[in-house]
Amino acid sequence: MVRAALRQAEGTLMFGRRNASMPIDATVERGANEAEAAHPFVAGKSKSTPLAQEAAAAEPPAPIPSSPGGPAAADRHEALIRSETFRTIRSAVFSSMNMSAALTMSRQEVREGIEQIAAELIAKDRLTLSLADQSLIVDEIVNDMFGIGPIEPLLADERVTDILVNGPDQVFVERGGKLELTPLKFRDNAHVVNVAQRIAAAVGRRVDESSPMVDARLADGSRVNVVLPPIALRGASISIRKFAKRNITLGRMAQQGNISPTMVDVLRIATACRLNIVISGGTGSGKTTLLNALSRFIDESERVVTIEDAAELQLQQPHVVSLETRPENSEGLGGISQRDLVRNALRMRPDRIILGETRGTEAFDVLQAMNTGHDGSMTTVHANTPRDAITRLESMVMMANGNLPLMSIRRQIASAVHMILQIERMRDGVRRVTHVTEIAGMEGDVVITQDLFTFRYNASAYEEQVRGAFESASLRPVFAQRAAYYGLEEALLAAMQS
Fold it and tell me: Region Disordered: which residues (predicted)?
């Protein structure tokens, strides 16, 4: 049992701001002395235990299978983390820990100290727990301290692309484009809210009953959306779009069947020729991934300004300025919108402006930028077809300036946007670029487009995996003359004919 006198002798905890990069409730000031750093636990310097020897040496948590041990194991996991035994061990760990010292230690070192406290308490109170159950309890506590609770192992699983928390009892993941339920659970709704608030606080944002929705990001860049009660009726909701640890290139996308090698050549030339490109697709279709892949062809000598709600882009160029929006504070002041950032970016002497997603009145300013010397700019929109993307741009421009005539808006779109890439997540879970569409100008009051490439699926061969082929229209692209200016016309025509 941990004694209060020893705890006071070790150092008093001081609570302050939360930080998701620190252990849970690690809101102490960094004033630990050498003795505290050496002895973070009142029970004494952590020693190796049988449980510690059983733990993996690597610091990141190991990925978990979708249903480890089947339903019985899932039920046992749920019962254990919601039991009085778990609460007792967790309380003993936090009451005996010197947070100032723990901040200076690695995950594995803190884990060993937690294992020692748990082992001593189990032995003293003669609790009936297997080594596997002890290890599970320690994992849950460590994940609470260093990460985002029970879903921390999912971040280490490279097969998982989305993590969807629907209250304390449901955690879904997307693997291979398909959703599946995991056995992971939170202790209660307060546990989910606590994790959500730590994620938001790490990027200077807040989420509570007065402000129940927030967009944030994790330390690795993964995008997070949080919705709390009373807006979320069945408990707090956390939606995480994972940040790919591997840099996805167009070449790798061609190997995976997302795009054809010929399309890669044409898109490389289009980016080098500084075409203004709009990437269109549904939610989760891979628009940002494709935008990241395209950005690799931007010349390193160019100054690029990126604008996003939650920073996701991974540009590799040396001269990149990243801007991020800011929500209003509790008094309704201090908000910085994407439109504000686009206007400000024009004063920053950018060669290209890359907008993570166009969803509102900033569309007017983006088109203005594309038409005023910022060639090579890129953005994404939500739309189901290239033609729908044009219509959506029209609607968003009208939101910004309803007095503009529709003909003027369409002429501005036809002049500003050179190419639309349509990407789709198909029923087999594979993302494919279904259209590479060029805007050829205006004819009367209609925006003229031509498809350079399309994906044609084989309707006669219905299988679980979608069958089809990428087809080239073998046309001379409208931007061939622009490619000639950059010395790439021959390469473009050769790619279209191959």
Answer: 46-75
Question: In the chain, how long is the greatest CA-to-CA distance?
Answer: 86
Give pLDDT tens digits for 374-386: 899 999 999 999 9
Domain assignment present for residue 69? The answer is no
- Per-residue pLDDT band at 135 (split at 50, 70, 90): confident
Under 8 Å between Cβ of 471 and 453? yes
Same domain flag for 355 and 458:
yes
CA nearest to 455, candidates 478, 475, 473, 474: 473
Rounded average pLDDT over 240-248: 78
pLDDT at 71: 59
Q: Is the pLDDT of residue 266 over 80?
A: yes
- Cα–Cα distances (Å) from 293 to 254, 290, 324, 388, 488, in that order, read 11, 5, 20, 23, 20
Q: Residue 446 is inside which H or E element, if any?
A: strand 446-457
Residues whose CB falls within 8 Å of the CB of residue 362, separated by 6 or more in sequence, listed in order: 337, 338, 339, 342, 355, 396, 400
Q: 236 is in which domain, residue-wise?
A: 147-244
Tokens (6 digits) for 84: 């009085």
Residue with tokens 């973070």: 40
Query: What's the number of domains the chain is made of?
Result: 3
Residue 319 in this model has a pLDDT that exceeds 80: yes
* Same domain, yes or no: 88 and 222: no
Are 434 and 484 part of one and the same domain? yes
**Residue 324: Cβ within 10 Å count:** 18
- Orientation of helix 131-146 relative to helix 107-125, angle to 10°: 140
pLDDT in tens, 415-442: 999 999 999 999 888 899 999 999 999 9
